[in-house]
């Protein structure tokens, strides 16, 4: 049995579907009031619980061989629909999950972190990821930490103010640092593979197939649409100060500003080899932008 924590989210949901399509027994930890119809529809077992309620985690871990943890509070925090903080959910909650899994005799724990998480930007999400990585390092379980570059569907989309349809982009910093934005589906395929392969590595950092700066991504979008993008730029120092000032009042937004600084200062030294080594043919950021431009044309 594989327990997926975060299966009501985009990444975790994709992981659950991939595992079920491969014939694996899957259990999903789902909060009380979350819609689980889609997960039940693929034949997943449902365990009601919450990372912020440690007493609910023991039963979810019973009979489980592998845990895949993709849950994060940041999206719901940004939407204002989740009262728990990043620290209570992503840090304290995930620690409780690790402890519950270990007590239940779980053999393997697969955890999604982010590439360059140890860069020292100091955001609430970064602190939570590093704390979890350190806690896993002391576990008796076989632990696998997958550090992914930023998701194309988030950071090259209107959600992160990269809006091809509207012709508007916001950039934190200079925009000239190379990244390897990666498709969520490719990350999901990697996590599913890491849950099943005989001897996975303890730590791997990876991204998409194409090294690209934010400025280069803007140029590609302009070429695809045939028009200039309106670019709003925020200096790194302003973003750093905003991240620190918001740290206690709005941990999600503080983490967003910090992520922008991270992407503008932390050059990608990783590549897509961990994906290709597992038979995953990753989508490039250019292909994603091409899809977005096509959708914008069709909807206009």
Structural description of this entry:
- The chain contains 13 helices and ten strands.
- It is of the alpha/beta class and 300 residues long.
- The protein has one domain (2-293): Rossmann fold (3-Layer(aba) Sandwich).
- A seven-stranded parallel beta sheet has the order 3-2-1-4-5-6-9, sandwiched between helices. It has a three-stranded mixed beta sheet with strand order 7-8-10.
- It is globular.
- The chain starts with a strand and ends with a helix.
Topology of this protein?
Layout lengths: L1 E4 L4 H12 L4 E5 L6 H5 L3 E4 L8 H5 L4 E4 L4 H6 L6 H18 L4 E7 L9 H14 L4 E7 L3 H4 L6 E2 L4 E5 L11 H13 L6 E4 L7 H12 L4 E5 L1 H11 L4 H15 L7 H4 L8 H15 L1
Parallel strand pairs: 1-2, 1-4, 2-3, 4-5, 5-6, 6-9, 8-10
Antiparallel strand pairs: 7-8
SS-based structural class? alpha/beta
Integer average pLDDT: 95
CATH C-level class: Alpha Beta
Shape: globular
How many angstroms separate the termini?
46 Å
Q: What composes the largest sheet?
A: 7 strands, parallel
CATH superfamily: NAD(P)-binding Rossmann-like Domain
Helix content: 40-55%
Q: How much is the radius of gyration in Å?
A: 19 Å
- Examine the secondary-structure arrangement and name the CATH architecture: 3-Layer(aba) Sandwich
